[in-house]
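User: Here's a chain of 424 residues. Predict its fold as tokens.
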Amino acid sequence: TDLFDQAGVERIARRLTRLLEAAAADPARPIGSIDLLDPEERRRILVEWNDTAHPVPAATLPELFEAQAARTPDATALVFEEEHLSYAGLNTRANRLAHRLIALGAGPETIVGLCLERSPDMVVALLAILKAGAAYLPLDPDYPQARLAYMLDDARPAALVTTSALARRLATGTPTLLLDDPGLAHALARAPDTNPTDADRSRPLRTQHPAYLIYTSGSTGQPKGVLVSQGAIVNRLEWMQAAYQLDDGDRVLQKTPSGFDVSVWEFFWPLLEGAALVLARPEGHKDPAYLASLIQTAGITTVHFVPSMLESFLQEPASASCRGLKRVVCSGEALPAELQMRFLATLAVPLHNLYGPTEAAVDVTAWACRAEPGATSVPIGGPIWNTRVYVLDAGLRPVPAGVSGELYIAGAGLARGYLGRPGL
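Assistant: Prediction complete.
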């Protein structure tokens, strides 16, 4: 009784009976082909637990941002230390750079590399690349030079946005825009400030076109570039808004390095909803004391932590004073049950545990954390909108509830594929 309850034992007995009956009926049948699920279990696992269909606008990220900028042009969109940028100001700056990128050949089905420190220029450039219709490739300046060279060679971007100091680390023949070049500043001042349209782009921008290209860590071989479509990330952001409901009083902290996909929702979720995006200073994401201070002084309501950083954050005494937070999101690593309990005891703030691989649009499952004395693990939850998850055995058959298997993902949240590796 330490291991099983009566209902669980009865389920095991029914499955054993089903296995024995099938084996007796056809002794030559491979045991692995015998289905242990009864029809009701199969329907629950395949259909009921994956009933996630939900309407989502057939729109792209630039369309949704431009609509928000039109609704709230004077609202604060971006905060970086003492610098504040309105939605109208951010949109105008991004438009000018987008038209310049289009002139360089950026557009749907092309990639534009982005190598910048966290700054307002980075956000402007991200939006400009998307407005041009291209997918952005984040090139973290902290990456080893060999990794940056590999990514550039593999992705072959149509253009590169960086600064003169960082360009020296990126030996490439790619057409490059140096944001600190006075000549570019003069050119941008003369560029159109209107939203680019399909008439300006090399081809019409559609939801199937890629929005970003992020490389895996390379823990299972060479890093692979993952292409995520506009439709996939819009589905993810629309679900997040329905689940957690930002409003124009919210301030979202952007601290995740741009080479990790969590940064995607940090950048764009607030900008689609009229909230303010607050940028941590470069390297600030590593400093718990700085983060606790910024959360309080900037009025941050929404923040993400990987569990290992949440552990460090809670060890900082000032973290207990971050009572203006409305929601904290964890993902990127397994969330230990003990850490969950310590967080909930320290801050009376909703904590959400999300899961998703690089090969999907950030996250595919979500769980609202709650105090559960005696719990030894924190669930990753159920699938988000228009996304299905299955636990399958080695023969790709669904396993009964409680049986170990491998997690498979399907639906709108799945990435388009690995760049240049259709076989994978």
